[in-house]
């Protein structure tokens, strides 16, 4: 059983996260195989649109905090006294910020199909996609501030729903549900859970009828506008703040995050849902 599934449905590549027993938490093999699946879809001229979806109840619980050396992580920190957090900084630059940026610029339309929990690094999988279709039970949160760090490695928050809501989400660690995410412009469509796959595929097929060259120019027009507004450099500078958060936690606690795994899981369970309207 592969950790990433790949299917070609006519002109649509469907990539599925396949770690449902771990709520599709992201370990290094999952990220590498996801990147390889994207590469495969990009290289195949038959593929016009790419869907990223997830098997199981939840889209993604974020980084797998229980990664083991056999996951290819090795000693993530190395000799901290000798090199500080240099090894971790390089690793997060490559596999978190680097992959997310690369995936934002995939030269074909991408659609994320999201159900259940999409926590912290889960956002780094759906935000770089061009469109997001969400099931009614989807909820989006970044509780990383509870670990003493100002947010996940890819700062999409402010771009996705503006400064005010971004701050509320980060300050409280609260979740935004699918309807609220749609109202804020972060999600394109909200559909019943049992219609998520069919609705996403229908949207992909509709887009696939367009000329690929026009789609690429349209995608680049929006992404280049975002970059002219400073998105590319902002992502880099906020990632540096994230790294500073790890360094600060290391100084205070001797670990690059402030709280342990069980405490973190408990705080996520108690995460409030942010709403501005009923
Ligand atoms: Zn980090």
Description:
The protein has helices at 28-43, 80-83, 86-104, 123-126, 157-172, 178-183, 196-208, 212-228, 231-253, 261-269; strands at residues 4-9, 12-17, 49-54, 110-114, 117-119, 131-135, 139-141, 175-177, 189-191, 273-274. It has 278 residues and is α/β, with parallel strands linked by helices. The strands form two sheets. Strands 1-2-3-4-6-9 form a six-stranded mixed β-sheet, with helices on both faces. Helix 3 runs antiparallel to helix 9 (231-253). It is globular, with a radius of gyration of 18 Å. The mean pLDDT is 92. The chain binds zinc ion (ZN).
Bound compounds, each kind once, are: zinc ion
Mean model confidence by pLDDT: 92
Spans of at least 5 consecutive residues whose pLDDT stays below 50 are none
Structural class: alpha/beta
Count, helices: 10
Compute the number of strand runs: 10
Principal-axis shape: globular
- CA gyration radius, whole angstroms: 18 Å
The percent of residues in helical segments reads 40-55%
Could you provide a short overview of the structure?
46% of the residues lie in helices and 15% in strands. The protein is of the alpha/beta class. The longest helix is centred in the last third of the chain and has 23 residues, at 231-253.
